[in-house]
Amino acid sequence: MTQALRRIQADLHIHTALSPCGSEEMRPPAIVAAALEARLDMIAICDHNSARNVAAVQKAAEGRLAVVAGMEIASAEEVHVVGLFPDIQSAEAASAEVRELLPAADEHYYSFFGEQEILNADGTFLDNETVALAVGTTLNLNDTVSLIKRHGGLAVAAHIDRPAFGVLSQLGWFPEGAGFHAVEVSRHLAGESPLLQEYRSFGLPITTSSDSHFLNEIGAAMTVLTIGDPTFAEVAMAFANLDGRRVDHA
Question: CA 44 → CA 139, 142, 173, 191, distances in Å?
Fold first, then answer.
C-alpha cells in the first residue's frame, strides 16, 4: 500500500546552549516547548561543530516532536555546512571526528564566548565542552561534505544569503561539485527576494530555517516538507524528490 503523504512544518537548524553563540535559555525542555508552541512537527539540533546535546533534546521531546540529529560544521574556509544525520550514533561519531580537529578553549576564549554547556534532558548542567567550538576546523569544504556523507548524512549549504559564513560569501561562487544535498536560506531573506532565482539555479532543494540561538527565534522560519512520517529517511527522500516526497515550500 502506498504511504499517505502529508505536509509537515520543520525547522532544521536550531542551536542549544552548547553553541558558543547560543543563549543559556536554549536548554532541551525549553527548546521542545518553544517548537511545539510554534506548531512545528520536526526540528534539527545543529550546534556549532558538535552534536553532544542532540540526545538530550531527543529525550526531552519524548515522542511529542521529531528531533533530527545534526551539526553545523565550519570548514577551513569558514563555510558553515549543516549536516543532518540518520541517527544519534552517526551524528556523535561525526562530532567526535570534528572535535579532534579543534583547539582547546582557554580562559580568553571562555571570557569572550562564555560556557559551552553539555546538558541533561531536563536542562540541568552535565559538563562543559573544552574545545573551541567557535573556530573553523582544518577540513576544507569538500572534505567537510565528505565527512557528513561518510556518516550517512545530508549536507546542506547553510544560510547562503548571509554576508558571512555562507558558501557564497566565503568563496564567491557556488561549488556545484561539492556534493551538497540542499541549500538553506536564512529567516532574514524575504520570500519574494530575487536572490531565490539565483539559488534555484543551483538545482537543489531550498530549505528555510531559523538558525535559532534564542527561544523566541524558533519557528521564525521553517520549511514545509511533503513526506510520510517526520523521519530522517523521509527528509532524505524529499531532498531527492523521490516518490512524491519533496521540499514543498521554503
Answer: 23, 23, 27, 22
